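Troubleshooting: if your tokenizer reports a length mismatch, compare your output against this known-good record of 174 residues.
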Amino acid sequence: MKYRLFSVVLCLVSLCVWNPSARGADVKIGYFDLQAVLDRSQWGQEVKKEFNTKKAQLEADVQAKAKEFQEVKESFEKQLKMMDEKSKKQKAQELRQMQMEGEKLLMESNAELNRLSQQLTKPLIDKIMDIVQTIGKKGKYDFIFEAQKAGLAYANEKSDLTQTIIKELDKVKR
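Known-good structure output:
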């Protein structure tokens, strides 16, 4: 067992001594902030504008349905004492139906927004990743990290590729 552990440690030390990239001497690292690219690039801003426009339309539809429900409910509550049992049951059933339709509309709106977000951002993210690959190959980077997902606590600004990616993305026609 000790011999095996010694062999593994010896192999790792040998790799570090003989492999310059393992020592960190020749490793080229870059990073970028995906959210900044999405927020500041023309394509990202167009996607955000299109998404927010659709979101506002859907929210207006849901608000209109909620307002209609509230008005019918208040009317029902005002007329409740004057209604016979059959009318109360019928109106209560109508209110339940309206409430279910409102909840269904809300769920469908949320699902549509999720679909739209995926539909709008997937080609954008794919293009950003293509640009990162190209920059990595042309710039001979060993690693390029996305700053937020990599959990970078500190990075030298000269390794920040965010603005370069934004410039390349802005050159691309959508």
